[in-house]
């Protein structure tokens, strides 16, 4: 099978990780794989270092209106003549997807990891009807969001749900390392993700103030960067918990971070697929998250963690306090979470599903 993965997003995130991991896996299994991306993207260097063939491309949100840019893409697709083209985000769909179809490529697949509803625009109706031939969603929640504004936008039976996977062997190599050492008898809470409004960190800071008022001895480790950093620091100061909240910035290796915690908290207002939740569970940590988005697909309430009524800081604090006071349940949930990852999200399982889907002759 010959496959081109198209991902020209400049930032490195979940979508870029999925495209890179899928391309690397398929290459190792003997398929001919290309990654089309910009030369300044994080994906470009990783692809080159992994020995994956790279097709340099510069695509913007309006590239599909440029006939010269479109013709250049058409020429590339005709020259390579792949069996599949797998796209990442809207700019790729509009330009590379359209060019691939114009080049005669019969299978153009849009992998969507964002649970934001698709706009029911004239352009989207055209793209989903005439350009996209198959879709991958990273959760039931993401699949639902695709059709939320227009149930006829795309045939639901052509949307394949493929959960993200984790290489437990690689992940466990750092199982003995820590980024933070416990002080006294404190309970260490952790959260990780981009510091943006939809990730719900402001609610978590509010919940932490309730913990302090209840006399709990804790430290909250916050991994990640983003535009809300200063606002969150100010909120911690106002709530009088700046000494209990440790903003650690970007963490290059997540396992040592998880090893440092007792409980992982995901305060996101919505999630297409909370990959960091899988990482916490793989480290044997119980997870507390709002009962929204894809969280109920990943977390088994009271078995691998606790789901909280959305979106309520007081309820979040109540669940955290309960788990702080029940160490036996914490340990059991952590063990159950690890088992769930091994059974559902280990890459040995998820990789086979990706390969089987992409090599299916009917798509």
Task: Kindly describe this structure.
The protein is of the alpha/beta class and 363 residues long. Helix content is 42%, strand content 17%. The chain is built from 15 helices and 13 strands. The protein has helices at residues 14-28, 42-49, 67-80, 90-102, 122-131, 140-146, 168-171, 201-213, 229-238, 254-259, 275-282, 295-298, 313-324, 327-344, 347-358; strands at residues 2-6, 32-37, 53-56, 84-87, 108-112, 134-137, 159-161, 187-192, 218-223, 245-249, 263-266, 287-290, 305-308. The strands form two sheets. Strands 3-2-1-4-5-6-7 form a seven-stranded parallel beta sheet, sandwiched between helices. Strands 10-9-8-11-12-13 form a six-stranded parallel beta sheet, with helices on both faces. Helix 8 (201-213) runs parallel beside helix 9 (229-238) and helix 8 (201-213) crosses helix 13 (313-324). The mean pLDDT is 95.
Shape: elongated
Order of helices and strands: EHEHEHEHEHEHEHEHEHEHEHEHEHHH
Number of strands: 13
Tally the helices: 15
Secondary structure: elements and pairs:
Layout: E1 2-6, H1 14-28, E2 32-37, H2 42-49, E3 53-56, H3 67-80, E4 84-87, H4 90-102, E5 108-112, H5 122-131, E6 134-137, H6 140-146, E7 159-161, H7 168-171, E8 187-192, H8 201-213, E9 218-223, H9 229-238, E10 245-249, H10 254-259, E11 263-266, H11 275-282, E12 287-290, H12 295-298, E13 305-308, H13 313-324, H14 327-344, H15 347-358
Parallel strand pairs: 1-2, 1-4, 2-3, 4-5, 5-6, 6-7, 8-9, 8-11, 9-10, 11-12, 12-13
Helix pairs in contact: 1-2, 3-4, 8-9, 8-13, 11-14
């Amino acid at each position: 099978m010959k496959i081109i993965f198209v991902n020209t997003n400049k930032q490195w995130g979940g979508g870029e990780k999925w495209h890179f991991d899928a391309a690397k896996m398929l290459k190792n299994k003997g398929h001919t794989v290309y990654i089309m991306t910009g030369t300044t993207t994080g994906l470009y260097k990783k692809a080159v270092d992994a020995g994956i063939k790279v097709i340099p491309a510069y695509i913007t949100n309006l590239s599909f209106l440029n006939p010269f840019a479109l013709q250049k893409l058409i020429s590339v697709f005709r020259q390579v003549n792949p069996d599949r083209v797998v796209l990442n985000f809207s700019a790729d769909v509009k330009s590379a997807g359209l060019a691939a179809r114009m080049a005669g490529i019969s299978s153009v697949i849009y992998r969507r990891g964002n649970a934001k509803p698709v706009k029911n625009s004239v352009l989207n109706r055209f793209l989903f009807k005439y350009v996209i031939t198959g879709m991958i969603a990273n959760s039931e929640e993401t699949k639902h969001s695709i059709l939320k504004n227009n149930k006829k936008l795309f045939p639901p039976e052509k949307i394949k749900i493929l959960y993200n996977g984790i290489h437990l062997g690689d992940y466990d190599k750092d199982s003995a390392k820590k980024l933070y050492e416990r002080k006294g008898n404190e309970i260490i809470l952790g959260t990780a993700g981009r510091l943006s409004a939809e990730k719900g960190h402001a609610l978590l800071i509010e919940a932490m103030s309730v913990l302090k008022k209840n006399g709990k001895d804790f430290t909250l480790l916050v991994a990640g960067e983003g535009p809300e950093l200063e606002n969150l620091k100010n909120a911690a100061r106002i709530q009088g918990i700046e000494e209990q909240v440790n903003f650690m910035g970007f963490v290059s290796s997540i396992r040592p971070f998880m090893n440092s915690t007792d409980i992982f908290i995901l305060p996101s207002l919505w999630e297409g697929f909370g990959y960091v939740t899988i990482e916490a569970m793989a480290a044997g940590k119980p997870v507390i998250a709002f009962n929204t988005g894809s969280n109920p697909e990943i977390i088994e309430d009271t078995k691998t963690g606790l789901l909280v009524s959305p979106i309520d800081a007081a309820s979040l604090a109540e669940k955290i306090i309960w788990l702080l006071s029940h160490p036996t349940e914490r340990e059991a949930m952590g063990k159950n979470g690890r088992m769930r990852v091994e059974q559902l999200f280990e890459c040995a399982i998820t990789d086979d599903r990706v390969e089987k889907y992409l090599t299916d002759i009917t798509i």
